[in-house]
TrEMBL record:
Designated name of the protein: PCDC1 protein
Cell compartments where the protein resides: Cell membrane
A single GO BP: homophilic cell adhesion via plasma membrane adhesion molecules
Superkingdom to which the source organism belongs: Eukaryota
Transmembrane regions listed in the UniProt entry: 663-686
InterPro entries: Cadherin-like_dom (IPR002126), Cadherin-like_sf (IPR015919), Cadherin_CS (IPR020894), Cadherin_N (IPR013164), Protocadherin/Cadherin-CA (IPR050174)
GO cellular component: plasma membrane
Topological relation to the membrane, as annotated: Single-pass type I membrane protein
Protein role: Potential calcium-dependent cell-adhesion protein. May be involved in the establishment and maintenance of specific neuronal connections in the brain.
Length: 688
């Protein structure tokens, strides 16, 4: 079986707990004989059994907190073993708590730092006291020493446990009282109750409740615009009543100060010196900046002062010329006053240094006119002529009124676009073309040329033949023309003897709108070729007969027998004729004048002269190569004109002895005579 006993901790040694023999119903006299013994897992033997009476007493006082620590129920388990017969009994001792421990705090002193800026109602967790007793003997409540700034409140956690909190009742002021010493007391529920306390030292942290104060709310300084980097502008100073980091002041530009100004100036964070750190490229003479002084407190406080820096202008900016609008090219027929460009001229310097005068060269057909503020219009002042000047480089000069003045120049390139205001112009008022007759078909005759000062389509010239007639026929039956380059070609072969010259007009027209044109005259002169032999007009022969002239038998020397008359349809030297006597039956009797064609006797007639004579006259021109004609003249020596003219095919004069015919006759006669003599000789031999 099992038996349970309850015993208070710290019960004195020897105190009776119970009678085990009586409680278990065992004969106490047999305990010793049955060799009883108590078995426990504890290292100490807290109980003892009297072997003769079975009385159970305390062998050693029990410290519940040491034995069970913080357990809510503290039990000691024992086993009682008896032999003869063997029996086993379980014994359970419930150790009851007594209020033998006072509450205690883990630390001997607690420190709490409270910022002075906190408002009433702020809470701070206080430490829990520890009490080794349990139940009502454990810590039941806390108390706080009286203080006008703090009071104590108990809070309950989610698990039901309680803990103390320090609550701020009145605002703190470090400058009046920097430290508050409190006592926290923990009490248990014992009877009598026990308590424990611990000092709580509240240190009032210096809150940054005093902002730095500048000596002046507005600082003024003046500096030249071209001041180099590092130039001191001004030194600002601010004080802070706080101490430590809360009283250490650092200087900087406020966030409201533009980034451009912060690049131009810098401020030393500790000394408050404001210096130039960049180029003072500003457009206004007075710069406004806000300087912030901030302490180093955890919750830094700050104040600002205004810094006004007057920039004394230096004429260090030249005028800036910007072309905001440009019309180029412009037509050459633009009327005066036409706007070409709109210019913006700006000088970043203020005052007189920023006032600008603007001009261009006087020898240009343009002028500048003021428009809106800082704007100028570039307009035409005269009529333009692209053919004279096709483009202009207009140099615009802008000068400010500073001392010394600064000047800026900008060149505007303006092109002049073409207008069809120039007709084509031929290279000559008239063209003379010389062409030889008998030219081949399609032969190139001439190329007229006209120029047009315009460009592009306005200057592209085409050529046409104006309608006209030549020798009763249309001009186009004689000539053709290349419209693009003005080349003239022959469509037929010219004949000098039929057409020696003619003229026509060529029109040149440009491709503008409207088109402009011009005309010129082309004179065509056909030059002669030696294509006609001289024509003998006198003496004439009919039906191939010889022309006969009768000369008195007693004609004297230099008697005019006849005059050969000839004509040549060619011209110039091709028609220059000369006369030559190529054959005469008596070369001593007649002579021929080479220029006049007169045939005369060279001596007086003799009775021995033949009655018939025949001469051959050649008429030759001076062409290259020369052409000629011949005429045969029969001359009859008679005092009167016979009724019938003799035949002049045989002239009657002795033939030449050794002409070809006589040679043939003599050879034939010799051959026949030789054959005949040979035949006679042959007959004679046969007879003999």
């Amino acid at each position: 079986g099992q038996i349970v006993y309850s015993i208070a901790e710290e019960t004195e040694r020897g105190a009776s707990v119970g009678n085990i023999a009586k409680d278990l119903g065992i004969d106490a006299a047999t305990l010793s004989a049955r060799k009883f013994r108590m078995i426990t897992g504890s290292s100490k033997q807290y109980f003892n059994i009297n072997a003769s009476t079975g009385a159970l007493s305390v062998n050693e006082p029990i410290d519940r907190e040491q034995l069970c620590e913080l357990k809510s129920i503290c039990l000691l388990n024992y086993e009682l073993v008896l032999e003869n017969p063997l029996e086993l009994y379980r014994m359970e001792f419930k150790v009851l708590d007594i209020n033998d421990n006072s509450p205690s705090f883990p630390l001997s002193e607690y420190h709490i730092n409270v910022p002075e800026f906190l408002s009433p109602g702020a809470r701070f967790t206080l430490p829990n006291a520890q009490d080794l007793d349990e139940g009502a003997n454990s810590v039941q409540n806390y108390t706080l020493s009286p203080d006008e700034h703090f009071y104590l409140e108990m809070q309950i956690r989610g698990d039901g446990s309680k803990y103390p909190e320090l609550v701020l009742k009145k605002a703190l002021d470090r400058e009046q009282q920097a430290t508050h010493r409190l006592v926290l007391t923990a009490k248990d529920g014992g009877n009598p109750p026990k308590s424990g306390d611990v000092p709580v030292i509240v240190t009032v942290l210096d809150t940054n409740d005093n902002a730095p104060e500048f000596e002046h709310s507005v600082y003024r300084a003046s500096i030249l615009e071209n001041s180099p980097s590092g130039t001191l502008v001004v030194q600002v100073h601010a004080t802070d009543l706080d101490e430590g980091p809360n009283g250490d002041v650092r200087y900087s530009f406020s966030n409201t100060t533009s980034a451009d100004l912060q690049r131009m100036f810098s401020i030393h964070p500790h000394t408050g010196e404001v210096t130039v750190s960049g180029v003072l490229a500003v457009q206004r003479p007075l710069l406004e900046m806000l300087i912030e002084a901030r302490d180093n407190g955890a919750f830094g406080m700050s104040s600002t002062a205004k810094l006004l820096v007057e920039i004394t202008d230096v004429n260090n900016h030249g005028p800036e010329i910007t072309i905001t609008s440009l019309s180029s090219p412009i037509p050459e027929d633009a009327v005066p006053g036409t706007v070409i460009a709109l210019l913006s001229i700006l000088d970043k310097d203020p005052g007189e240094n920023g006032k600008v005068t603007c001009q261009i060269s006087e020898n240009l057909p343009f002028q500048l006119k003021p428009s809106l503020q800082n704007y100028y219009s570039l307009v035409t002042s005269e009529l333009l002529d692209r053919e004279l000047i096709s483009e202009y480089n207009i140099t615009i000069t802008a000068t400010d009124l500073g001392s010394p003045p600064l000047t800026t120049q900008k060149t505007v390139w303006v092109q002049i676009s073409d207008v069809n205001d120039n007709p084509p112009v031929f290279s000559a008022d008239a063209f003379n073309v010389f062409v030889e007759e008998n030219n081949p078909l399609g032969a190139f005759l001439y190329q007229v040329s006209a120029s047009d000062l315009d460009i592009g389509e306005n200057g592209r010239v085409s050529y046409t033949l104006r309608n006209s007639t030549v020798a009763g026929s249309a001009l186009t039956s004689f000539l053709s023309m290349n419209l693009a380059n003005g080349s003239i070609y022959a469509k037929c072969a010219f004949d000098f003897e039929q057409l020696r010259s003619f003229h026509f007009q060529v029109e040149a027209k440009d491709n503008g709108s409207p088109a402009l044109s011009a005309a010129t005259t082309v004179n065509v002169y056909i030059s002669d070729q030696n294509d006609n032999a001289p024509a003998i007009l006198y003496p004439t022969s009919q039906n191939g007969s010889v022309a006969v002239e009768v000369v008195p038998r007693l004609a004297d020397e230099d008697y005019l027998v006849t005059k050969v008359v000839a004509d040549d349809e060619d011209n110039a030297q091709n028609a220059w004729l000369s006369y030559h006597l190529t054959h005469s039956s008596d070369s001593t009797l007649f002579q021929l004048s080479p220029h006049t064609g007169e045939l005369r006797t060279t001596r007086s007639m003799r009775s021995t002269d033949f009655l018939k004579h025949k001469v051959v006259v050649v008429v030759r021109d001076h062409g290259d190569p020369p052409l000629s004609s011949t005429v045969t003249v029969g001359i009859l020596l008679a005092d009167t004109l016979p009724q019938a003219l003799p035949d002049f095919d045989d002239s009657g004069e002795p033939p030449p002895l050794l002409n070809a015919t006589n040679i043939y006759l003599i050879a034939s006669l010799a051959c026949v005579s030789f054959i005949f003599a040979a035949f006679i000789f042959f007959l004679a031999i046969i007879r003999l």
